[in-house]
Amino acid sequence: MAAGHRITVEQGTDRVRVVRDGQVLADSARPLVLRETGYPARYYLPPDDVRTELLTASETHTYCPFKGTASYWSLPGAPDLVWAYPDPKPEVAGIKDHFCFYEVEVAG
C-alpha cells in the first residue's frame, strides 16, 4: 500500500438498512465495515441481505489500486447506486461479492 494509506475490514456490530423511495433494498445485522484513509467508513453487505432482484447490472466499472475492480448496479432513476468487488485484492478479500451502497441507515 502507499505510504500513509491504510484499509481495514472488520465485522460490524450495527444493523444497516438501505431504503430508497420507501422501499427496503437491504437490511443486514452482519455488515463488514471497510475503513480507508481519506474516505468515510463504508458498509459492505452480504448478498443474502440485499434485494438483488431489484438491481440491474450497470456497464460501469471502476478500478481502485487498493481494492481492485468494482462492478456497479442501478435502480430506475438511480444509476450506479451500489457496487461490489467480485475479485478484490487479497488484502480486502473479505468484501468479495458484498454490496456497498452510497447511502445507508445505521442503527447502533
UniProtKB/TrEMBL annotation:
Q: Which residues form the DUF427 domain?
A: 16-103
Q: What is this protein called?
A: DUF427 domain-containing protein
- Native organism taxonomy: Bacteria, Bacillati, Actinomycetota, Actinomycetes, Kitasatosporales
